[in-house]
């Protein structure tokens, strides 16, 4: 009696044939692809995804660390940091916070992208037809894009704002509708508190322009009206006061360039205006501005020029076109001549 020959349909799968040779079980050999190859491929996809995510996160962390330490490549620096400047970096902590924020956003993006690709590959291994799924996802993405375009706009604007380092926490900025100190910076919302204590929440996508008063250096401008007093005398007094402030050891580190009195800035109906300037670090501009104004005012008062300014203004009012005139005889003024009515 001839023994029965058992055949198995392995579809040219060497693993299937090898399992049949080992076990002699046709059902196990035919199911080896499903029970052995599929799980192995899925496990391999997960391991590769985890490895890629780990390597990318490590690269991002190294980039963030080098950026926080100030050793970032020149091409990745903001434009103003590529330009040589005599002003040292004043915000190492801010640089670290900015680098951490960018790193967090990049790590989240990498994790989402890697695992999304891995899930699609696993579904393909399980025999799921990805074409309808991808088409549906594309349609849903388009619909979501139309419905959430403002959100996408805010996120992109916030990302580029962080990359370009337009402003950071603690900066004094002018964003158009709101001017104040930045209290929080996010990918979607920037929070600003103005001088009245009002907290403003501004969407990054709605910010058209940014005026940052806290980056690098600042120029303090002080315009001093001196009326019709002697210009040369007033200029000399103001320059002496500015020089004394520059030599004050309490303010020695607050100046990049010492204060300077430029001279006459403009002439108005009230007299002459003299301008003084000083170049300071951005965090000292308000303190220095207040001190310059105080010292220049005291210098004018001490020299007696302030009294001349007051006298010239009083004289201008008394000799104006509506001022009453005194008769040559020195007698009392008749109000009826000025159109104000007789005496009461």
Secondary structure topology:
Layout: H1 14-23, H2 26-30, H3 32-68, H4 79-82, H5 92-125, H6 130-147, H7 149-164, E1 172-174, E2 179-185, E3 189-193, E4 199-203, E5 211-212, E6 217-227, H8 231-246, E7 257-268, E8 271-281, H9 285-303, H10 305-318
Antiparallel strand pairs: 1-2, 1-5, 2-3, 3-4, 6-8, 7-8
Helix pairs in contact: 3-5, 8-9
Structural features:
344 residues, alpha+beta, SH3 type barrels, Alpha-Beta Plaits, three-stranded antiparallel beta sheet, 8 strands, disordered N terminus
Q: Any overview of this molecule?
A:
The chain has 344 residues and is of the alpha+beta class. It folds into three domains: 35-128; 161-212, Roll (SH3 type barrels); 217-318, 2-Layer Sandwich (Alpha-Beta Plaits), CATH 3.30.70.100. It is built from ten helices and eight strands. It has a five-stranded antiparallel β-sheet with strand order 4-3-2-1-5, with no helix packed on it. The chain has a three-stranded antiparallel β-sheet with strand order 6-8-7, with helices on one face. A hairpin with a 4-residue loop joins strand 1 (172-174) and strand 2. It is elongated. 16% of the residues are buried. Residues 1-8, 82-90 and 326-344 have low confidence and may be disordered.
Name of the level-1 CATH class of the largest domain: Alpha Beta
Quote the beta fraction. Answer: 15-25%
Residue share in helices? Answer: 40-55%
Strand segment tally:
8
Q: List low-confidence stretches.
A: 1-8, 82-90, 326-344
Helix-strand topology string: HHHHHHHEEEEEEHEEHH
Output the radius of gyration: 39 Å
Instruction: Please identify the structural class as seen in this structure.
Output: alpha+beta
- Walk across the major sheet and give the strand order: 4-3-2-1-5
The number of helical elements comes to: 10
What's the architecture of the largest domain in CATH terms?
Answer: 2-Layer Sandwich
Kindly identify the CATH topology of the largest domain: Alpha-Beta Plaits
User: What count of domains describes the coordinates?
Assistant: 3
């Amino acid at each position: 009696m001839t023994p029965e020959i058992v055949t198995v349909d392995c579809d040219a799968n060497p693993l299937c044939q090898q399992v049949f040779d080992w076990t002699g079980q046709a059902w196990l050999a035919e199911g080896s692809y499903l029970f052995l190859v599929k799980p192995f491929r899925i496990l391999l996809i997960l391991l590769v995804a985890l490895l890629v995510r780990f390597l990318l996160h490590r690269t991002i962390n190294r980039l963030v660390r080098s950026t926080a330490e100030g050793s970032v490549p020149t091409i990745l620096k903001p434009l103003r940091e590529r330009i040589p400047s005599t002003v040292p970096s004043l915000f190492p902590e801010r640089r670290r916070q900015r680098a951490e924020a960018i790193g967090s956003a990049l790590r989240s993006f990498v994790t989402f992208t890697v695992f999304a690709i891995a899930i699609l590959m696993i579904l393909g291994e399980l025999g799921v037809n990805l074409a309808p799924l991808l088409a549906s996802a594309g349609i849903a993405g388009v619909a979501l894009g139309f419905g959430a375009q403002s959100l996408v706009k805010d996120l992109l604007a916030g990302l580029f704002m962080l990359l370009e380092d337009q402003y950071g926490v603690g900066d004094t900025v002018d964003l158009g509708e709101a001017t104040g100190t930045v209290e929080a910076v996010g990918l979607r919302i920037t929070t600003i508190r103005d001088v009245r204590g009002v907290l403003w929440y501004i969407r990054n996508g709605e910010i058209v322009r940014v005026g940052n008063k806290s980056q690098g250096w600042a120029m303090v401008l002080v315009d001093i009206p001196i009326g019709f007093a002697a210009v040369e005398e007033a200029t000399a007094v103001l320059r002496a006061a500015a020089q004394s402030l520059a030599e004050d050891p309490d303010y020695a580190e607050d100046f990049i360039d010492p204060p300077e009195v430029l001279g006459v800035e403009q002439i108005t109906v009230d007299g002459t205006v003299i301008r003084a300037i000083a170049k300071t670090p951005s965090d000292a501009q308000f303190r220095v501005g207040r001190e310059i104004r105080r010292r220049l005012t005291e210098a004018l008062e001490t020299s007696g020029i302030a009294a001349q300014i007051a006298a010239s203004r009083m004289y201008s009012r008394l000799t104006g076109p509506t001022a009453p005139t005194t008769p040559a005889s020195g007698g009392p003024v008749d109000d009826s001549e000025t159109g104000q009515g007789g005496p009461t």
